[in-house]
Structure formats: C-alpha cells, structure tokens
Design a protein that fits this description.
The chain is α/β, with parallel strands linked by helices and 255 residues long. It has ten helices and twelve strands. It has an eight-stranded parallel β-barrel with strand order 1-4-5-6-7-10-11-12, surrounded by six helices. Strand 10, helix 7 and strand 11 form a beta-alpha-beta unit. The two termini are 17 Å apart.
Length: 255
Amino acid sequence: MFQKRIVVCLDVRDGKTTKGIRFKGNVDIGDPVVMAEEYYNQGVDELVFYDITASAERRGIMIDVVRRVAEKIFIPFCVGGGIATVDDMSAVILAGAEKVSINSAAVRTPSIITGGARRYGSQCIVLGMDAKVDSSMPSGYGIVIDGGRVKTGKDMLEWAKEAESLGAGEIVLNSIDADGTRDGYEITATRLVSESVGIPVVASGGAGIPDHLVDVLTRGKADAALVASMVHYGDFSVGEIKKVLSESNVPVRLD
C-alpha cells in the first residue's frame, strides 16, 4: 500500500526558523540546523526548508544554511525561496537538496519549471502554491505570491494543471487562510487539487493535532501532509503523529 508522508517545514528568516499566522507576525523559534537534525531523529519522512523573505527581497537563498542542514539529515530534503533560475536550482542541489521548490518565480516565469525538469527530472521540481479563498476565481481559490503579498489573478486549479503540464513533479498546496491557525487543513482546496492532477500533492497550512492529518490524507486525498507549529512548539513529536495515523489506518512508515 502506498505510504503517506509526513513533512516538517522550516520557514527560515535571517538564518533562524520562524513561525507566524497567515504569513504575518512571525517570531523566531530556533536554529534550523539543530531543529532539522531533531526531526530527522524523530523519524520524519521529508524536510522542507523555505527562505521565506528571499523572493520578496529579490535575493538568493541562504546556501550556507542549506548546506549545514543537508549535512545533518539523510532523508529527502526540499529547498525553496528566492530560486529564480535553473542555475539557482543547481546551487541548491549542489548544496545537498534533493528537491527544489519554486513558487513566485514559477508564476512570473513558468518556463523555469520546464527548464528545471529537463536538467534534473520532474521528481526534483516542486511547485509551491499559496492559495487564498477568492470567489472571483472559477475554483473559488486564487494564487498569491511573494509570501502572500501579491495577488496573481491565477486560478488555483488552472495553475496546478498548467504546472503539471510544464513538468512539475509535485505540488505543495499551502492555504494562506489556514496557515499557522492550527485549526485544520483546507480540505476542500486540497481535495480539488488532488483530484485534478496526476502528481503528488502535499497539504500545507493549519495542522494543529494529528487528527487534522488523518483528515487531509483521507478526505482531502493528499499524498503527504506538511506540519510546522504542532511540532515546533513541542505539542507532538513526529512519532506521536505517525502513531495516530497508523491507528487510523493511514499507511505510514514506522521506525
């Protein structure tokens, strides 16, 4: 049976892991290198590292921090933030990442998806999508970029399908409305995207308790669930989350 994945997200700003609510009010909560190693030891399936201000500040990603994290973990490692060219992807992969997440740059220059897929394979190219409820869009959700600061006028489902056709190998769907609230994932948006594309979809934004992951991995049809606050603040360990998932008949890797 296909196993569902648990992915821990480290949002990094100025070299520190940070967390906010709906992309606002961020506070620093720790050292990303130390935290990455701890989650690896807890048995997380994958780790995602986002340099959350790189795109808005039009600068490159913090390669030194990426390299230091990669030295501590031996699981799939995805890196995003400030990646604007295929050469930027190369720098991140050479620093130790297995996957590259592109978000704002992909909206501005969709050909970067194809360029990255041709050089490294679709399995390396992850589309990060920040979706927000928007009644003017056909799906009911619109895409925003630059850390939620800029509306794009793109419909969530149209963009997901386009990105897949361009060569994206995975989608991380983050709900701006649910982000950091710990009230649960945006099930409707996740299910819509999961049913509309043939590539894996990772649900992001809103996890507060293990049952939220059960919900999005079953009703939301996600292939993986991304968590942050619920593990960063010590409410649950990765092992505790996986135990609940297993007891709920959600197939996961147990160490």
